[in-house]
Design brief:
Cyclin A, domain 1; 8 helices; globular; protein kinase binding; cyclin-dependent protein serine/threonine kinase regulator activity; Protein CNPPD1
Amino acid sequence: FYPCQFLPGHQKLTERMRKRLYYGLDQDLTLDSLSCPVTDIAIEIFQKSAPSPIRKLHKKYAAHVSREACISPCAMMLALVYVKRLRHRNPEYLQKISSSDLFLISMMVASKYLYDEGEEEEVFNDEWGAAGKLDVKTVNHLEMSFLSAI
């Protein structure tokens, strides 16, 4: 296989991302998981976007899902884009869904878009259900509702 090649500004962009997302300057640290401050920011955004008090998103749940589902910072950013789009195009949907469910399903859809190429890196709803402590039927329903809303 070919040696890994990076675009000219890759290193500079990576350093900026580490600083911006609070990953520090540790070169051994990868950007494969969410930092605690990034998780805190996400929780705040999801709670404000889906204000229902039922199944309100908490740090313990977000950290558990992030760890179990291996959520990347890129998936988090894309999920936040989805939430912003929903706020502008379909705010009624955000009144009906809990912030925990919105967190789980937007992360799942973002991960599918970014990483599921249908061969080796598939994203399975049952795995996301296990990460979010929901059954597959519920995850499937949440996914269909989310995709219809967006």
